Every structure is written in structure tokens, then in C-alpha cells.
Amino acid sequence: MSFKQSEWVKVKKVKGKGRGIFARKFIPEGTVIEKVPVLVMQAEDTYGTFIEDYVFEWGKDTVALALGYGSLYNHSYKANCRYEDVGRQSKAYIAERDIEKGEEVTINYNGSPNDKTRMAFDVK
């Protein structure tokens, strides 16, 4: 699997959210926005650290930090992007619908783009 910086997106500041991922140009539905490696670690090793805000569950007692832009996508219940595990320790981010230039690219942290399970934080 080849990893390279995505030509499709860039990082921008988002009022009330910190940073987010935005479309550099029009992204057609089904486009693989990026494929990224993940670093897997023990969940307890991240407690109380700045990394805790950027990791996601990866098994029973482990979490993963997605490299590339992977850990910077913001959550939305109306996500325009989904993520899939595509290798032993890698993820792909794929456009769920057409995404306009300048639009924030979001994922549903619950995994499924349509999952409305309440998050442990206030969704903005």
C-alpha cells in the first residue's frame, strides 16, 4: 500500500473545534481521499496526554493514532466521508458524497456514517 500526502484536503482552523480537514478542490463521491498508517498503543498509555484527544479505539485495550490527516477529521452525524480499515495497520478515508471545494470533510466517530449514538463530548 502506498502512503503519500493527500492532494484532496488541507488543514484549517475551525472556530469552536480547533482544527479540521477541508477540501482543496471538488471531491467526487467514492474518491479515496487518503490512505494512512496507524500507530497502535495501549489505551492506558494515552490517558491524561495530549494524544488522548487524537486516538480512537483499536481493539479491546488498545487505541490507534492515524497519521497523515487521519486524526484531524472532525465528527459529524451528517458526515460526508467514511473511514475503513484497509490493512493490518492502515485506514482509508473515502468520500461518502460529492464534497465541494472549501467544505469541511467530516467523519462519524461511531464508525458508520449514519450511526447517531451519542458522543462523550458536545458535538458542534
TrEMBL record:
Domain SET: 7-110
GO molecular function, one term: histone H3K37 methyltransferase activity
Xref: Pfam families: SET
SMART domains attached to this UniProt entry: SET (SM00317)
Name this polypeptide is given: SET domain protein
